[in-house]
Amino acid sequence: MNYGLVCTHCGMRYSNKVQLFRCIKCGSILEVYYKYPSKIKLIGEKITHSRYRNLFPIHGKLFTLGEGGTPLITYKMKGVNLYLKLETYNPTNSFKDRGSSIEISKAKELGFKEVCCASTGNMGLSTATYAERFGIKCYIFISEDANKKKIEKIKKQGAEIIKVEGDFNTALETAELFAKENDVFLCGDYHYRKEGQKTIAYELTEQVNKPLDFIFLPVGNSTLLAAVFKGLEEFKRFNLLEKLPRLVAVQAKGCNPLIKAFNNHIRIRYQHPKTIADAIAVGYPTFGFEGLKSLKKTSGIAVSVKDGELLSAKKKLAMVGIFAEPGGAAAFSGFLKLYKKHPAYLKNKNVACIITGNNE
Ligand SMILES: [Zn+2]
Predict the structure, then answer these.
(1) Cα 27 to averaged position of ligand 1 atoms, centre (Å)
(2) The CATH number of the domain covering residues in 96-189
(3) Which secondary-structure segment (H or E) carries 332?
(4) Staple 229 to which of 66, 196, 294, 299, CB 3.0 to 4.6 Å?
(5) Domain 72-94+193-355: top CATH class
(6) What digits encode the pLDDT tens for the residues 191-216?
(7) 29 CA from centroid of ligand 1 (Å)
(8) Is 182 exposed, middle or buried (0-12, 13-18, 19+ CB in 10 A)?
(9) Contact 286, 222 (CB under 8 A)
(10) How far does the centroid of ligand 1 lie from the alpha carbon of residue 12, in Å?
């Protein structure tokens, strides 16, 4: 689709030909905006990531490793129709692959030979895998508290690892500077990744095939939350969805800046991450402002869960043969908490939880 870039804060517009990741005027995150046609053609019958190709900002070839089209299963819970979307079935075991397909396709389209990104683990593994497979050199900036098993997996994909003293946000700043100074394509939680991740919302809509009341999802950088909201809005625009479900954001209690901001009606403030859920240990979410907007526009709910609750949700999933890391089980953990505390909220509702990753 034809598109441009727009600042999420001041509204400044940019051409899609400029290689920007933040607004020149105010430094905020950008977003892809489309000149939407009145109708959209979905490709093929099978639900896959490439089925939604006409809703991507890609003009050249779409580089894919078969991401998306992940299973949706029902989970037996009394009084609720609960569906689990298993993003752990993606090529590198996490939802990040949907975004990596778009970012690597865009990097190739623009003629870049190198990419870099900051990561707590899963995004680095996904980016490194796609870069290696499609002949691009990859640098991954890792925070000092990153998961060691994930670092080993990234190394195996041939990426160069740069360890940064500090947390994820320090790694993020370093990666952005590196990309700017060395003319390297910056991957990560920016506008192109968001365009890839929105396909989870399309798939959920098509797979459930009845109006969903709630979608539970984990929040780290808040890209998934903003992306799912965008995907739902787009499907509604094209009359492929009747009403927007309520979005439920789940964060670990030891790193919940977005939940605090939403529930207390305050601005997002940095919080030093202290949680076992490394995949969502982000002290200041890049798409936080967008995430809050997504919650407000869907009458959303924000839930914090303790590390113990994450582990117990992970265990419960394992008992039915679903394997997830603590951050990957966060949505289900948030669901269990709400189900226990406010059962009336969820009574007879159609609810989906996104199980995001399994890379322990
Ligand atoms: Zn701006």
Answers:
(1) 6
(2) 3.40.50.1100
(3) helix 330-341
(4) 294
(5) alpha beta
(6) 999 999 999 999 999 999 889 999 99
(7) 8
(8) exposed
(9) yes
(10) 5
